[in-house]
Amino acid sequence: MINSSSPSLSIAFNYILLNGSDSLFPKAHKAEAHENVQHGPFNTLFSFDVDSCVYVFQKIVKAGDKDLDGQLDFEEFVHYLRDHEKKLRLVFKSLDKKNDGRIDSQEIMQSLRDLGVHISEEQAEKILKSMDKNGTMTIDWNEWRDYHLLHPADNIPEIILYWKHSTIFDVGESLMVPDEFTAEEKKTGMWWRHLVAGGGAGAVSRTCTAPLDRLKVLMQVHASRSNTMGIAGGFAQMIREGGVRSLWRGNGINVLKIAPESAIKFMAYEQIKRLIGSNQETLGILERLVAGSLAGAIAQSSIYPMEVLKTRLALGRTGQYSGIMDCAKHIFKKEGLTAFYKGYIPNVLGIIPYAGIDLAVYETLKNWWLQRFATDSADPGVFVLLACGTMSSTCGQLASYPLALVRTRMQAQASQEGSPQMTMTGLFRHIVRTEGAIGLYRGLTPNFMKVIPAVSISYVVYENLKITLGVQSR
Q1: Is a pLDDT exceeding 50 seen at residue 472?
Q2: Distance between CA 74 and CA 187 in Å, rounded?
């Protein structure tokens, strides 16, 4: 393993100091670095042309610069190499089909064949020769590591494969950053099967947790200091007003919007990635957040009238609307077209804290697990994946909840007789003034109560639908 006292590591860092551009690395010590790098075990790694060197150095700085000062100090370099070596070992293990600690041409051919790429044995041997130092026509771990160590890789395919997040977990809010798909999944068409499986899992999950979701909406709109509404009291009130069936009021439109929203968000995400000049192999966390937030905003803009319909149906009395279309007609006739976009601004603003915190927490937990526990595989297992998904979703919801509550209140304003029509900021001030800060978190309890069952149900259904659709796990 790499350690900060390694002479070879110091030589490698000195080489980067020597060859990196002044805008990326400190000018100091470059003369000293020149002497240190003339001889040493890393000198064979740096047979790049100048443009390749600059590109590689820029990627290393981007991946390793933790304090975002535009420079890479020795400790940051050590941290980057430790993390990168961990990922390289996972890839080496997945390529080593015979588990003998060496990779030969047949194993390279088989691994590429699994990705849908067919090469000849001569081409495989040519790949081997580029990394093989001792002429054995096989690559051991040291040769593999030395060749790839200074080539940043943000998304190892095996990690992408096992750590899907937003496709699998559905907690009723579609504000997560979309998942990445490997080149193999895109080439074989597995990506759309993943999306279909995720959509089906979301439909089942939302249906199973719909009573809690409707209770959350009622508490967001009607609960106050003078009108306290508990979990048991809320359920009793709904059943008394419309029977057990009323617990699922508004669920139909909530399920229907999954398909268009997922499809639009995925397509927008892929297009935005191309516009910012990135692909799935090099997309960093910040780029993913930007692309995912923009894609989420586009998708939400497209299906937002369905969000308004869901809220109005959930708040509706028994017999008030005969169905989704009847509700839409009533809103359009009474309030006009703009009513379908009430609460749009807090909804879009809520994407950033939700997606950002959800992604940051999930990536932090994922990287912590990979560094601490991943040895032969990046597969975290069911319970780790569920725990990470639950924690990241909960944190994301907690951060964006006040905006979600204001959105729901704005969507419901016209349906409440005598209720003043307030702006987003006016509603925020009104809630804080009359109910205190706690008023911004009405309905939080049923919202959190549904997270664990929603995540668990969506995962189980997703895994079963994957089998039905013929999605390969590896």
Answers
A1: yes
A2: 40
How far are the Cα atoms of 120, 313, 418 from residue 308, in angstroms, in the given order? 57, 9, 19
Q: What is the mean pLDDT of residues 117-142?
A: 76
Mapped onto helix, strand or coil, the DSSP state of residue 299 is: helix
Q: How far is CA 413 from the centre of its chain?
A: 33
Within 8 A by CB and 6+ apart from 357, the residues are 392, 395, 396, 399, 400
Read off the pLDDT of residues 188-198 as tens digits, 9 standing for 90 and up: 777 788 888 88
Taking each helix axis as running N to C, give the angle between helix 121-131 and helix 105-114, from 0 to 180 degrees, rounded to the nearest 10.
Answer: 110
Run of H or E residues at 102: strand 102-103
pLDDT above 50: residue 15: no
CB crowding 132-143: b at 16 or more within 10 Å, else e: beeeeebbbeeb
- In degrees, rounded to 5, the angle at the alpha carbon of residue 338 between the alpha carbons of residues 336 and 339 is 75
Token representation of residue 178: 């979309």
Residue 431's pLDDT band (cuts 50, 70, 90): very high
What are the boundaries of each domain within the chain? 7-166, 183-469
CB neighbourhood size of 45 (10 A): 17
Whether residue 303 contacts residue 261, with contact meaning beta carbons closer than 8 Å, is answered with yes
Question: What is the rounded average pLDDT of the residues 135-139?
Answer: 82
**CA proximity to 179, closest of 203, 163, 200:** 163
Give dist(CA 8, CA 14) in Å, integer: 10
347 contacts 300 by C-beta, under 8 angstroms:
yes
Question: Alpha-carbon torsion 418, 443, 460, 198, what sign?
Answer: positive
The neighbouring-strand residues paired with 139 are 103
CATH number of this structure's domain 183-469: 1.50.40.10
41-57 tens-digit pLDDT: 344 444 444 444 554 55
Q: Looking at the domain that runs over 7-166, which CATH code has it been given?
A: 1.10.238.10
